[in-house]
Amino acid sequence: QVRLVESGGGLVQSGGSLRLSCAGSGRNFVINTMGWYRQDPGNQRRLVATITRDGNPTYGDVVKGRFIISRDNTKKTMYLQMNSLEPEDTAVYFCNGDIVTLTRKYNDWGQGIQVTVSS
Questions:
Q1: Roughly how many angstroms between the first and final C-alpha of the chain, as a whole number?
Q2: Residue 34: closest CA among 76, 67, 63, 68
Q3: Of the candidates 69, 65, 66, 44, which has an alpha carbon nearest to the alpha carbon of residue 55?
Q4: How far apart are CA 34 and CA 111, in angstroms?
Q5: Which residues of 96-106 are buried (b: 16+ CB within 10 A; e: fewer)?
Q6: What values do phi and psi take at 43, rounded to 5?
């Protein structure tokens, strides 16, 4: 079973930076498009950024040019460098990936990781 596991979240002051990671674990798989989404209480999950297997990024409106998405296919890991963080960025951040194994293709989510930005 392939798993997506986020790390790197936590508490940071306004104006600070954090780097999130999402690592895929398991056997005999690749991950095509990967993405970061976030959800704060009372709101729907929103797109932060996606990146194709070839490394082409797409950013959601919430990013405002402050975040950078990247990936390392050899490590099956995706990153989100978050700069100039604002209290409005406080949310649970979820990793998403289009997973391809020897027998199936499916979309899956990580368990989410909390990011809290204090003012």
A1: 40
A2: 76
A3: 69
A4: 15
A5: bbbbbeeeeee
A6: -125, 160
Identity of the residue numbered 31 = I
Full pLDDT tens readout for the chain, 119 residues: 899 999 999 999 999 999 999 999 999 999 999 999 999 988 999 999 999 999 999 999 988 789 999 999 999 999 999 999 999 999 999 999 999 999 999 999 999 999 999 99
Give CA–CA dist 115/112, Å, rounded. 10
The CA–CA distances, whole Å, from 98 to 40, 60, 67 equal: 23, 18, 22
Q: Which amino acid is at 15?
A: G
Evaluate whether 20 touches 82 at the Cβ level (below 8 Å): yes
Look at residue 8 and give its three-state secondary structure. Answer: coil
Pull the structure tokens for residue 105.
């293709």
CA distance 49 to 58: 5
